[in-house]
Structures are given as structure tokens and as C-alpha cells.
Amino acid sequence: MSAIKKIGILGGTFDPPHVGHLKLATHFAKLLRLDALLLIPSGEPWQKGAGITPAEMRLKLTEAAGIDLARAFLYLKIPTQVGIDRMEIDCAGPSYAIDTVKALRERFGTNASLTWLMGADSLVALPSWNSWEKLSQYVNFAVATRPHHDLKLEISSEVGQFLEVHQTSDADALENSAAGLIYIDESLNIDLSSTALRERLKSSSRSSIASEQIPTHTLEIITNLGLYQ
């Protein structure tokens, strides 16, 4: 049994967190045998523009989603601990992944396996991230493909070259690697987005959204506070 600490990182605006986030987290927690999984809501998501729900409210929604995620892990006998981290919210100024991974590397040490979990749309958009080519010095990446998207057609030459250097077809390799590997998983097909859900919440009754798309505890807060109307 490996003594290396295995930490998963799921960052995002979480406006709101949805079942797709939880399915991604559950899939990789089991596949990578993660010791812990951190959900990290962004403070000031500089790429998202105006109209973002205030950070403290998104943190509250993420904490609620974390309750459902922890229960799912318990039910599925996945021994991964769930944590909600406010490090980006407490940081002044825009949230950059590079600052987050540097801080996490300092926190967990040089030997820990840190893996950033993401959907393929984030992988495609990596060149727009601040200092993106340096991220692999601090973390691995576990990427889930999305239905109706052909990753080979969508990635830029920059990302293609990045994959040539870092991609592995062996998920187990991430457990024993502190950083520098990219694993693309094609078995999980999730087609949910927070943007689409916000639009639906504006135009639909809460009952039509249901907990099939938004975690139960998160939906309860959204409903009680009348968010996204």
C-alpha cells in the first residue's frame, strides 16, 4: 500500500455546484484512490466577468454540496475525505490556479500526489489560464471527456504538445507521481454546466430542476433564498 498522500483538487466558480461536479469527484476519488478531495470555490474568477454570485454565497452552496458528496462516498464505501477550502476566497484579487497549486504544494509537501480534476472543456481552455504551462510542475491532471465533444478536434497545438509530454494512459501512475502527469478518462460522460442550470433556474420552477441536476442540500439553499431568479 502506497504511503504517498493522494489529494484531489476540484476548483471552480461553483455558481451553482451541480451533480456533474459530484459525479466527477466521485469517479476520480474511486479511480485514483484519493485520501482526500478538496472543493475550492474561486474567489474572483477573472475569466467569468460580471454577474457572478458573491463568493461567500458560492462557498455556502459548495459546503452544502460537500455534504451530499460525503454521503455518496459513505454509501459507495469510498474512503476519501471531503474538504471545502476557502483559500481562494480569502485571497485578495483574482483567483489564479497557479497560485492555488503552489500554496497546496507547500501545504502538503513535495512527495504528495496532487491531482487537479477537470472536464475536457477546461483542458481545451488551459492556454487562457495564467502561467498554465507551469501548472504541471505542481500537480497532475485527471480529465473527464464530455459527450458530443471530440477532444482531438478541439485542442490547440499548444495543448497537443503539452499532452505529448505529460499524458499517461495509466491512471495508477498518478498515485505514485507528485506532479507532471495528465490522465484523460473517457468512461465518464457528463453534460451539465452551471451556466445552463442558472438559465433554467431563472425560467423554471424549482421542482423541474430537482436534485437530479443540483445536489439536494444546495438546491434547498437556492430555493429558500430565491437565488438565480
Explain briefly what this protein structure is.
The chain is an alpha/beta fold and 229 residues long.
Structure overview:
The protein has 229 residues and is an alpha/beta fold. It is built from 9 helices and 7 strands, in the order E-H-E-H-E-H-E-H-E-H-H-E-E-H-H-H. The chain has helices at residues 19-31, 55-75, 97-108, 120-124, 151-154, 157-166, 194-203, 206-209, 216-225; strands at 6-12, 36-41, 81-84, 113-119, 140-144, 167-168, 182-185. Strands 3-2-1-4-5-7-6 form a 7-stranded parallel β-sheet, with helices on both faces. Strand 1 (6-12), helix 1 (19-31) and strand 2 (36-41) form a beta-alpha-beta unit. The longest helix has 21 residues, at 55-75.
